[in-house]
Amino acid sequence: MATGPNRAAEEHVTALAETLTTPRVGECVFCFIDRMLDAFGCDTTLRWARRWRDLRLPRATGLEARLGRRGGFCDCEVFLNGWTVRPELLVPDQHGELDWPADRPPCPGVGPRSAQPCSTWVPLRRPW
Ligand SMILES: [Zn+2]
Ligand SMILES: [Zn+2]
User: Fold this and answer.
1) Which of the residue ranges 1-5, 62-66, 75-79, 99-103 would you say has the lowest mean pLDDT?
2) pTM value?
3) Residue 83: pLDDT band by 50, 70, 90 thresholds?
4) Is 119 exposed, middle or buried (0-12, 13-18, 19+ CB in 10 A)?
5) 33 C-alpha to ligand 2 centroid (Å)
6) Å from CA of 4 to ligand 1 middle
7) Can you tell me the distance from the alpha carbon of 13 to that of 85, in angstroms, rounded to the nearest whole number?
8) Which residue has the higher pLDDT, 39 or 128?
9) Closest-lying ligand to the alpha carbon of 83?
10) Where are the beta strands (DSSP E) in 70-112?
11) SS3 for 78?
């Protein structure tokens, strides 16, 4: 039998996880994926993209296909292959190479019906 306090603790953790993995008001899908990857990593699926879609824009059924067209077949690939932080936001790392800022700017937001990236993100130029 599950005891009372344990049950309560489990429910608390579940509620906390729900809050932590809920898109912020106006937060675009890319800022959300970036934030979730930072906290929870990639499970080799588009689970964060899907979670954003399910919570924010269930009708955006083409989201995975759109990410996949740029090589984003899981959440981390969205940023490895598809999109990156816009150049003005990059900061030099310890080797002087431009890198993503450790703290991303807060999402400036997108419209309630938009599954597009906010102004933080630009399509990655492919080296080939
Ligand atoms: Zn991945
Ligand atoms: Zn954003």
Assistant:
1) 1-5
2) 0.87
3) very high
4) middle
5) 9
6) 38
7) 32
8) 39
9) 2
10) 83-85, 91-92, 98-99
11) helix
Alpha helices in 21-118 (DSSP H): 29-40, 47-56, 63-69, 75-77
- What is the whole-number distance in angstroms between the Cα of residue 28 and the centre of ligand 2? 4
pLDDT-derived band at 44, boundaries 50, 70, 90:
very high
Place of tokens 């599950």: 2
- For the chain, domain boundaries: 24-123
Q: Are 106 and 27 in contact (CB under 8 A)?
A: no
Residue 34 to residue 41: CA distance in whole angstroms: 9
**Residue 50 zone, left/alpha/beta (φ > 0; ψ -120 to 50; rest):** alpha
Average pLDDT, stretch 24-50?
A: 97
DSSP-derived letter for residue 88 is G
Q: Which residues in 76-120 belong to E strands, given as ranges?
A: 83-85, 91-92, 98-99
- What gap in Å lies between CA 114 and CA 59, rounded to an integer? 11
